[in-house]
Amino acid sequence: MFIHTDNITAYIPQRTPIVMISGILEVKDNITRTGLQIAADNLFVEDGVLKSPGLLENMAQTAAARVGYVAQQENTPVPIGFIGAVKDFEVFEFPPAGSFIETTTEIQSQVFNATMVAARVTLNGKVMAQCELKIFINP
């Protein structure tokens, strides 16, 4: 169940073919959940599975979707952010094309325009990948 899918690009700066989330599932407190139906022709699918760059981009876009969603709720312009650092990026398994993954980000801390986020990608409850992202938002 998506809460927002009609135009996901209203919440994130990426455009096709780099859009790596299908919709927002939940934004609550410090937690954001998104979903992605992995298409076989996805830019980051190789040998029938979503590879590391796609998983990392999916986690970053989940964090971005939260910022965009909050901005939309507050009727303010959606700010642009960028990844300043990736820490402890681990891939346990590559999800296959055709599957539906869920990605969760949780804000760990915020200092000025820097936000530390823990991110996790799951498939049917099994962790596929995880990392910590340091994200900077242009004010």
Task: Write up what this structure looks like.
The protein is α+β, with helices and mostly antiparallel strands. The chain has one domain (8-137): Hotdog Thioesterase (Thiol Ester Dehydrase, Chain A, Roll). Helix content is 16%, strand content 45%. The protein contains one helix and eight strands; from the N terminus they run E-E-E-E-H-E-E-E-E. Strands 1-2-6-7-8-5 form a six-stranded antiparallel sheet, with helices on one face. The longest helix has 22 residues, at 52-73. The chain is globular and about 40 Å long. The protein starts with 22 loop residues before the first strand and ends with a strand.
Which labels suit this protein?
139 residues; Thiol Ester Dehydrase, Chain A; six-stranded antiparallel β-sheet; globular; 3-hydroxyacyl-ACP dehydratase
Kindly report how far apart the N and C termini lie: 32 Å
Could you say which structural class the secondary elements and strand pairing correspond to? alpha+beta
Find the count of extended strands (DSSP E, 2+ residues): 8
Query: What CATH architecture label applies?
Result: Roll
What oligomeric state best describes the polypeptide chains here?
Answer: single chain
- Which class in CATH terms? Alpha Beta
Report the helical percentage. 10-25%
Main β-sheet, spatial strand arrangement: 1-2-6-7-8-5
Largest sheet: 6 strands, antiparallel
In short:
The chain has 139 residues and is of the alpha+beta class. Helix content is 16%, strand content 45%. The protein contains one helix and eight strands.
